Every structure is written in structure tokens, then in C-alpha cells.
Amino acid sequence: MSITIALSKGRIYEETLPLLAAAGITVAEDPEKSRKLIFPTNQPDVRVVLVRASDVPVYVQYGGADLGVSGLDSLIEHGGQGLYQPLDLQIAQCRVSVAVRADFDYEAAVQQGGRLKIATKYTTIAREFFAQKGVHVDMVKLYGSMELAPLTGMADAIVDLVSTGSTLKANNLVEVERIMDISSRLVVNQAALKLKQQRLRPIIDAFAGAIGKD
Ligand code: AMP
Q1: Cα 207 to middle of ligand 1, angstroms
Q2: Which residue's alpha carbon is at the smallest distance from atom 18 of ligand 1?
Q3: In a shared domain, residues 112 and 133
Q4: Does one domain contain both 157 and 111?
Q5: Pocket lining for ligand 1, CB < 6 angstroms
Q6: Whose CA is nearest to atom 22 of ligand 1?
Q7: 68 and 82 both lie in a single domain
């Protein structure tokens, strides 16, 4: 009964390593220096798979992985079906914000009944946010480099993750509204939680202990 853990490269992987260590799990090889997708660990029955951040909830939902670490942004866009979400790990913290070109009058555009062209990967988050404000949005779905959309005139605004704000600044965009704070969550396949309870529980408990929630 082996355990597969789904992670994504970058901040989530790096900030999950200490939590895995708390569960006695160390990854045998540095994934940042490899093109492999499956990584063995020091535990013969535990392996790590590396997938795109937005695919982590999908792998866990369909049992391609038993557990994973997913940003709240990816989790909301996915919908959370079939996932048990026991812990806010408080890692990879950032926010989802609205940003526009410095010369764009956002306040005027979002007057009640206004209309806005939004480019984003986070269509669910953006749609709900602007619906609550009573602003009509035309949504352009993108998969990356959202900053380019207002600069090329393809959109009035973007909805994207912001951490330090330096990416926006480098592209002459200004953050005009913070939609929500984001952190990463532990997600567990609901069937695996029952069938592999004995092996998964100690890992979940070790993660909880490492973040001071035991
Ligand atoms: P920053 O320049 O520090 O504001 O970071 C913004 C860029 O990094 C954007 O392209 C974001 O999509 C990405 N980013 C920021 N925080 C995260 C995170 N926690 N997880 C994934 N991507 C992030």
C-alpha cells in the first residue's frame, strides 16, 4: 500500500520539504535539477510526483496521488470535489489581486453597472468577485504572463497572484484591489483517507505538528 504525494515545483515544493521532513520523509533527488516526474523518498512506500500547481487537486481527486499540497487559488478554481482538506499549511502565502495600467481609471470602470474586460487564469475567483460588486465582466482566460494583457490593450485589468508586487511594478501595473489572501492547503483523496488511514494519518499529524496545530 504505497503513498503518492503530489506537489508543484517552486515555492510549494520548497516550503513543503520541512513538513515532509517532520513526517520523516526526505526526497532522494532535487527535482529542480531533474526532468523526472516521479521521485522516490527515503521511505520505500512513499513517492512524490511533480505536476502543475493547478493539476494537484485533479491528481488527488482522481487518485493519481493520495495527498497533495495545493494553493487555495488552484483549489477554488478546481472546486474541491472529492478532496478532504484537513490543514491550512500557511505556506506559499500571497494574495489574489486586481491590477491595471497606471493610466486606467479603475474607480470609474467599476461604478455600479460598469463593464470591465479581465484577463486571468483565475476565472472563478474573478467572476465571483466582480459579480458581488455588480460589475459586468468580459473574461479572457489566459494560462500565464497575465501582465501582458493590459499592456497590449487586450484587457482593462488582470486578476493574478501577487507576492512582493515586483512583477506588477516591472510591468508598470498597479494593484488596485486585493481579492483574497492565499496560502497552501493539504488535500487528501477521500477514498485513500479511509483505505490507507494507517499510513496517511501519521503524515497528516506530522504536518499538523510542524505548523503548530497538533
Ligand atoms: P511578485 O513579483 O513577488 O509579486 O510575484 C508575482 C508573480 O509570482 C506572479 O507571476 C505570480 O503568478 C507568482 N506568484 C506569487 N506568489 C505565488 C505563489 N504563492 N504561488 C505561485 N505563484 C506565485
Answers
A1: 24
A2: 92
A3: yes
A4: yes
A5: 11, 71, 92, 94, 160-167
A6: 161
A7: yes
Q: What is the pLDDT of residues 66-123, one digit of tens each?
A: 999 999 999 999 999 999 999 999 999 999 999 999 999 999 999 878 899 999 999 9
DSSP notation for the chain: --EEEEE-TTHHHHHHHHHHHHTT--BSS-GGG---SEEEBSSTTEEEEE--GGGHHHHHHTTSSSEEEEEHHHHHHH--TTEEEEEE---S-EEEEEEEETTS-HHHHTSTT-EEEEEES-HHHHHHHHHHHT-EEEEEE-SS-TTHHHHTTS-SEEEEEESSSHHHHHTTEEEEEEEEEE-EEEEEEHHHHHHTHHHHHHHHHHHHHHTT--
Return the CATH number at 19. Answer: 3.40.190.10
Q: What total of structural domains would you count in the chain?
A: 2
Residue 130's domain spans which residues?
94-182
Does one domain contain both 153 and 107?
yes
The residue to mutate among 55, 89, 93, 94, having the most atoms of ligand 1 within 8 angstroms of its beta carbon, is 94
Residues 121 and 165 in one domain: yes
